[in-house]
Amino acid sequence: MLLLLAIFVGTLAGCGIWLMLRARSFDLILGLTLLSYAVNVFIFTMGRVKVDAAAIVASGVPATLADTADPLPQALVLTAIVISFAMTAVLVALAVRARAETGVDHVDGQEPPR
Amino acid sequence: MSAAALWAAHGPIVPIALPLVAGSLLLLLEASRSARASALVPWVSLLATAALLLASVQLLVQADSGVVQAYLLGNWQAPFGIALALDRLAALMLVLMAVVALGSLVYALGGDSRRGVHFHALFQFQLMGLAGAFLTTDLFNLFVFFEVLLAASYGLLLHGDADGRRARLRSALHYVVFNLVGSALFLIAVSLLYGLAGTLNMADLALKLPQLGPENARLAQAAALMLLVVFAVKAALLPLYFWLPETYASATAPVAALFAIMTKVGVYAILRMSTLVFGAGAGATAGSVAPMLPLALATLTLAAIGALAARRLNVLVAYLVIGSAGTLLLAVALAEPASVAAALFYLVNSTLVAALWFLLCDRITQARGGSDRLQPAALGPGWAGLGVLFLVAAVAVAGVPPLAGFMGKTLLLQAVGALALAPALVMTVVALVLLSSLLMMVALARAGSLIFWKPGPAAAPAAAVAVVAPRPAQTAHGLALAGLAAAVVASAVAAGPISAYTEAAAAQLFERQTYLRAVLGAQPAPPAYDVRKEMRERGDAK
Q1: Is residue A111 in a domain?
Q2: Does residue A43 belong to any structural domain of this protein?
């Protein structure tokens, strides 16, 4: 499970960084989104992966991390998702405007000289 | 509850709550169609910022007693809930922020605030994010406040009318993407630290990190360095400052002036983390800030060269900001009370003077008919006053006596000389600080003599007539410039009290116990009204 998650995070982050380095605003946004997915899963794993455990304290079960999943990283992920979603929206608006203004998709507003 | 008791209990939240309430109110007023409501907008904004300054000064006076005041948000005890803490450093940053904000806002009221939508609301939200970042003691909360101030800064950066829009859009795209990647790194570092130590409270982290086993040492170091890289993005350290000149040069003048405090947020965060969490005795992460020393020296050198090579006045000033960030990080990386005290003293002056510079640049550009290229151009009326301000600002920023830039650099060099460092390192630091000051002085002297002494040919009458701002603009601009210049001069006149304060602030940073005790020992206030008890008494609860 942990290995699977690690491969998942690594692949997402790698793809994200590769896309970001292409210096086209569409690829850039896609890359940033992938990177933020990778980060979100990473935060989640930092609370230790635990299968079949609730994140809330149930009656009759001792309120320790041995019996429940750590709820804090889940709260952090939620916040991070909301923020990265909003920021992606800002970036999309900005990129669309820049595309309309300059006519090219390159992040520098002009095609690089060949 | 009387007003004094209310302030004593809830004072530290005011710098965050006030801009939040004012910003929300401004959003409503700006959206309103009635002329009376929109006429209120500048006044509400001005009033809120002035009140913020008053509150910050009051908090500074309180913090100067040496007490660290912790404020439990949501009334949960510290490592479990988020706490704010007000110490000398936080109070100093708050006052500095409020002064710069007031200056920028008064200048913006001269016309720049009407060049786009929602300027005032974004301005207040930016202040809220800044104040939160200075006050919070929780790492994730710091991330959230960083995002608040960044989100507002994206809006402010794009603020402006049609001229220069293309450059603004391009630099804004770079700025947003760069900061989003920074945020991703921030999250990785924060969650790594949480995974290792099981806490996000900085005071609690300071206690937990030294107890980590050796098997986790490398991970903790990686997290610490990643965190410092994120802050270095904000503070404009060498490999990470390339976004800054273009961004600051393309922003509208009052926005750029407000951004003068933004690079200082990065410096503040590095200072806070390196003294509180990654300080001496922090186990594996102790001394994480040390690799910044050569980078800070290189930043300083390249900033001086950049200033010398700048072909636009705005870009020159942006490089001066980078240079001051380099000087500050140099002192922070030395991680000694004396060098940090000198850095804080220099920080006051360099922030004020950077804000003054960006506003002054705008006026000079207008007086020259809209161009800030360093080429001979006809100079409009009012050049005498601008020249005097240019001289004051240049003297203060380059570190020439008698203004406070000189004193800050002297204090820093004295501190470096008094430390037990390798002689070669001391020589390098002293030489580079002095050399970069000299280069900046040359750059400024060249720019000044070109602008004021070599005003280009009395150009064709119609083509190059300077843009003369209408009357209210002149008044607002003059007030803002005079106010900030007075603040710069005052920081030199009051050098004694300020340096006494910064020394005390640095001592408080390195003597961590007061802070730790205040944050972790703060007790939740007893509830005024206990619902659970009442339910028990009524027999509702199980």
Answers
A1: no
A2: yes
> Which residues in chain B have Cβ-Cβ distances shorter than 8 Å to A47?
194-195
Q: Considering its fold, how many domains does chain A have in total?
A: 1
Q: Are B59 and B91 in contact (CB under 8 A)?
A: yes
> How far does CA A97 lie from the centroid of its chain?
24
pLDDT of chain B along its 542 residues, tens only? 688 888 888 889 999 999 999 999 999 998 888 888 888 899 999 999 999 999 999 999 999 998 999 999 888 888 888 999 999 999 999 999 999 999 999 999 988 888 878 899 999 999 999 999 999 999 999 999 999 999 999 999 988 877 778 888 888 899 999 999 999 999 999 999 999 988 999 999 999 888 888 888 889 999 999 999 999 999 988 888 888 888 888 888 999 999 999 889 999 999 999 999 888 777 778 878 888 899 999 999 999 999 999 988 989 999 999 999 999 999 999 888 999 999 999 999 999 999 999 999 988 888 887 777 878 777 777 788 888 899 989 988 888 888 888 898 989 998 888 887 888 888 999 999 999 999 999 999 999 888 888 776 655 444 444 455 566 678 888 899 999 999 999 998 998 999 999 999 999 999 888 899 999 988 888 877 777 777 778 876 55
User: B450 at the A interface (CB within 8 A)?
Assistant: no
Residue A107 to chain B, least CA–CA distance (Å) = 7
Q: Give yes or no for B178 touching A (CB within 8 A).
A: no
The domain in which residue A7 lies consists of 2-102
In B, minimum Cα distance to A25 occurs at: B173
Residue whose token pair is 């850095």? B343
CA geometry: angle at B144 spanning B143 and B148, to 5°? 115
Distance CA B539, CA B542 (A): 8
Chain B residues whose CB is inside 8 A of the A97 CB are: 169
Element (H, E) at B392: helix B383-398
ipTM of predicted assembly, 2 dp: 0.94
Contacts of A109 in chain B (CB under 8 A): 166, 169-170
Which of B138, B168, B180 to mutate to probe the A interface, most A CBs <10 Å? B180
- Asked if residue A79 is part of any domain, the answer here is yes
